[in-house]
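Most newcomers find our protein records easier to grasp once they have seen one. Read left to right, the backbone structure tokens trace the chain's path through space. Nothing more is needed to start thinking about how sequence determines fold. An example says more than a description, so a record of this kind follows:
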Amino acid sequence: MKTEPYREALYREALYLRRAYVLGHPIKHSLSPALHRAAYDFLGEANLEYDRRDTLPDDLPAIMHGVRHPDGTEDAPYIAGLSVTMPLKTAVIQYCDEISEMAQVTGAVNTVYPRGEKVLGHNTDVIGIVNALRHAGLEPHPLKDSAAIVGGGATAISALAALHALGYCRVSVYARSLHKLGSVQEAADRLGVQLEQIALADLPQNLAERGHHPVVSTLPARAADEWASQLSGLKGASATHRPVLLDVAYNPWPSVLASAWEANGGTVVSGLEMLLYQAVEQVLLFTDRTLSEGELLGLVNAMCAAVGLPLRASVS
């Protein structure tokens, strides 16, 4: 979406402490503060603090008022940005002046930030999924590979957009309740993706006989345990080909699904990688920065160290 040029971001003129928050409910176990605080420390943003803020939809008007009036006072610091989690990713859209094309496609906003006099909304979950899959070694071959998504909620739509960005035009989606996949189908129609809807109970057999690569499981922690324990093979797995799974759940880790996938010859990447890469994009938006490749690598590694992820040799 093209928009008019914005005047210099007001946060650089703020007289008082700047704040950013992760909003959602429940929120007390979120790792976003560890990631963002490490990033702002690396960037030298000494007066930008990042905190959790337990928030329900009814709390949004007062919070968004602070984003819309960003001059900042000693008692009400300037809000540089908001990381938005469930159950707010749809509800927050009405408070944004503009949302990005990716947010429009997915129907969800996980990132809110001011630019000049406007409040913008974006979805960084998509790039988070793309980069997590690439970090796992995925080299997309859309004409040969059979991509799949497990689950049918909001994250499944972001996963669909991510697979589309990687070049996949046909995707299988597995869910317990196929009649609840309306929003996923609508997103597929907007993207021009051919969507195959399949019952979740069929997934273990299909993985063994048909094969899927890559696979993005968007199920909550432990929700995949039952079918994962039935996993008896990954078609196409070999010493030279290890089907990739992104399990967006990362606590506990390894999950039952991750262990079963690796035991059957696949490669697994956790949702913590997705959280990392979507947070990197948020940090750049909240601080209005463009970094060199070396600076970006330093930023990513500072964030990795904060949550116990392995350091990177490059960001390419």
Remarks:
- Residues 271-287 form the longest helix (17 residues).
- Residues 129 and 274 are 5 Å apart (CA to CA).
